[in-house]
């Protein structure tokens, strides 16, 4: 956890427990610069030969100790800077170390911590002048010079701090942007997987219901002719083959997504999807399975947008599958209508089933989620879906957009 006004240790070299190569170079330069400046000020003091030996020894010991303390300036910048400010009241040897310590505080701490230390250091220049100063410059002039020097050091340190804060901010924003991009890619993959799962449900439910219908006919029609048995067996074989082929294609797409981590779903090659032009083939398959299906209304070869045509195909497919499951033997009517600007409407109707429901062993299994998934698919396409009994008739009605001139979308009955 970072404290207020403290930059992350990765940038400032604190909290890591060890110095980097750059830290060693900077610390060596800071140490020897502090020692050099301190010796120059100490040797150049006008009262060097006038003070008692114990006073000069105290000056040297205090200044050297402060220079050595600079090796821990990253971990304890405030404490070292306060010690340097207090030693500045009498120690000439501590002058260089005091400037380095003040610079470190300006870099590692906020201005509210740094400025009071600089102010105390400036105030203690007055007793230093009376203890160690000479007659070369009046003490007010010396005070102004020291103030300007402290201002430069603090300003430089705060500039370095601001630059490092900017680097931290940019790194943080770059990290968040990368994480958000990965999240968007993962969401796109999950959306694509959900779409593939819906495709699997729609396709396999249709194929397997055909297989179940023909198998049931073979089971209960003991008097069927060899030709009828052969036709039903051919339909079962063809439907099972197509179901396996569809399943193989879908699983192949999923494996492609798993093995291509750096590619988004938009970059994958999608399997061919049916459109409105495939509705007659769908109807013929149902008729071959023994269903009575009437197809009318809009010609299926009109240039309908691919998305709208695909959604309409899925509506017809789900309607026929549900009719096979829940109203076996009932006549099904499929009506397509609409046009550019008015939208594309699909209406699938069948009579209410007569007689008791089939036994659980004879019923075609289902997950019960087909209409819910279909409503989501139609909603994503910008359309509407309605279903339910209209008197003795079950109706599944959908409307999907069809861009172009004309009136706006009409209500779904």
UniProtKB/TrEMBL annotation:
Swiss-Prot/TrEMBL catalytic activity: ATP + protein L-histidine = ADP + protein N-phospho-L-histidine
Protein name (database record): histidine kinase
Upper lineage: Bacteria, Bacillati, Actinomycetota, Actinomycetes, Kineosporiales
Residue spans crossing the bilayer: 24-43, 55-74, 80-106, 113-131, 137-159
Domain Signal transduction histidine kinase subgroup 3 dimerisation and phosphoacceptor residue range list: 192-256
Organism for this UniProt entry: Spongisporangium articulatum
Database matches in InterPro entries: HATPase_C_sf, Sensor_HK_TwoCompSys, Sig_transdc_His_kin_sub3_dim/P
Record's keyword annotation contains Phosphoprotein: yes
Domain of life where this protein originates: Bacteria
EC number of the protein: 2.7.13.3
Keywords: ATP-binding, Kinase, Membrane, Nucleotide-binding, Phosphoprotein, Transferase, Transmembrane, Transmembrane helix, Two-component regulatory system
CDD domains: HATPase_UhpB-NarQ-NarX-like
GO-annotated molecular function: kinase activity
